[in-house]
Amino acid sequence: MADVAVLDANVLYPAPVRDLLLHLASEELYHPKWSDTIQQEWIRSLLAKRPDIKKSSLTNTREWMEMVYPKAQDRRYGLPKTPISLPDKDDIHVVETAISSGANYIITFNLKDYPTKELAKYGIQAIHPDDFICYLIDLVPDEVLNAFNAQVTSLRKPPKTADEVLSALKKCDLPKTVLELRRLSRSNYDVSY
């Protein structure tokens, strides 16, 4: 059975990370989960930082995500409320989503916001996206490489090379993932260039 992972808003915010995580889900390497609140949060944060991006474009991305991954939207979130102690109460909804969706991971860049001891009560682990992707590479390297190749191929406006996507992922704080994908490509695997 594939892992179930809640995607925190901060991993949906950077397009290269979001795209790779969703392509990994398309390969059925894990089951992504999110709530309406998480979706609203990444869009709101991105619009605040990048006013040049049209809200309609991000809304289209969200609608596409919900169409392609209809089971990812956690519709049970918030019922019932769970007593959770976190450094930032604004992150409680992420843990509630993980609990209600049966997730065993929360993929996040902000590990400090999710204390290990608190999450362990619910069988959940917070994991950095770099570590999660490397975990998948250890398990199923060919499938991860397929997902990466699909990500590269899907980029058309503008088109990007594999090296350009790897550079973008490195800038998004995924250095180990980039090293592993480069290693795989040199090990007689085909990476699109």
Walkthrough of the structure:
The chain has 2 domains: 4-129, 3-Layer(aba) Sandwich (Rossmann fold); 133-188. Helices cover 55% and strands 8% of the residues. The protein contains 10 helices and 4 strands. β3, α6 (116-120) and β4 form a beta-alpha-beta unit. The chain is globular, with a radius of gyration of 16 Å. The two termini are 33 Å apart.
Structural class, please? alpha/beta
Proportion of residues in β-strands: 5-15%
Distance between the termini: 33 Å
CATH architecture label name of the largest domain = 3-Layer(aba) Sandwich
Task: Write down the secondary-structure element order.
Answer: EHHEHHHEHEHHHH
Per the CATH scheme, the topology name of the largest domain is Rossmann fold
General shape = globular
Gyration radius (Cα, Å) is 16 Å
Strand elements, count: 4
Q: Main β-sheet: number of strands, strand sense, barrel status? A: 4 strands, parallel
How many domains? The number is 2
Describe the structure using short key phrases.
4-stranded parallel β-sheet; 10 helices; Rossmann fold; 2 domains; 193 residues; globular; alpha/beta
Could you give the topology of this structure?
Layout: E1 3-7, H1 9-12, H2 15-26, E2 30-33, H3 36-49, H4 55-68, H5 92-101, E3 105-107, H6 116-120, E4 125-127, H7 129-139, H8 141-154, H9 162-171, H10 175-186
Parallel strand pairs: 1-2, 1-3, 3-4
